[in-house]
Design a protein that fits this description.
seven-stranded antiparallel sheet, two-stranded antiparallel ribbon, mainly beta, about 40% strand
């Protein structure tokens, strides 16, 4: 029997080692970059990453982290969002988080307020100092 702990601290026991690799690929993987935590839902190719200055196409849904209220979604409009990575067209959470994601990856970006809209908030939808959560799917770049 093989025993191991996943990223959430849960003990798993299995008979075959290959099962461990399958299970690990399904378990949520979290990585932290400054004010961004990346929670992987579906792994991308792991080889192809967008670079600064590259045009990136994503589908996203944005939520207020504290309440779970959805404030925007490209999926609801059935229209992906296109932006240039790393040049300040989007919030810092996206610029820092998306460059860590590979083609095809689906992840949730957890954004601290200073990596989102900070003390200003954004219009009537996002209050000042709000932590945000975005479900992001890398479509193309």
């Amino acid at each position: 029997l093989h025993r191991f702990y996943d990223a959430m601290g849960r003990l798993h026991v299995c008979k075959e080692l290959s099962y461990i690799f399958l299970l690990v690929s399904v378990i949520l993987v979290e990585t932290v970059h400054g004010g961004v935590t990346i929670e992987t839902k579906h792994a991308g190719d792991g080889k192809t990453f967008p670079t600064v200055g590259k045009s990136v196409t994503v589908h996203y849904t944005g939520y207020l982290a504290d309440t779970g209220v959805k404030f925007d979604s490209s999926k609801d409009r059935d229209q992906p969002f296109i932006f240039t990575l790393g040049v300040g067209e989007v919030i810092k959470c996206w610029d820092e988080g998306i460059k860590q994601m590979s083609k095809g990856q689906i992840a949730t970006l957890h954004c601290s307020a200073d990596f989102a809209y900070g003390a200003n908030g954004a219009g009537n939808l996002i209050p000042p100092n709000a932590k945000l959560k975005f479900e992001i799917e890398i479509v193309d770049f």
